[in-house]
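Board notes (copied after class):
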Amino acid sequence: MAQSVRVSDEFYEMAQLAGAALGRSLAQQIEYWARLGAAMDAAGITSQQAMQMLTGDTSLRDRVMATLGAAGEPDRVAQAIAARHALIEEEVVTGQRSAESLFAFRRDAIQSATMIFAAEPTPSSSTW
């Protein structure tokens, strides 16, 4: 069943632009970001840490994985995630951090992005 949710105009515009660039509807884009955020929350990874890992900071990835890797201690991991989530929420509410700072991509980067598609292979080229 579809539900309505209020989001800021800025977030709405960012999702609309990103969705159009990626061939997703607005709803699909917001659901994608929500699932991605939920997965990051579950792993205790901030968007800043994710960006560092995406840019090749393997030491950060190893530290995050070591922190979360206590498979025999799911309660400790869940508590650490909940504490981090509460801290980030408080930073946004008190104005120490903007909600947009939690996004993986800056607004200007999304707006100026250009999609480049690979050329279709010709029948004579060797492909899988």
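Comment from the instructor: The longest helix spans residues 74-93. The chain has a mean pLDDT of 78.
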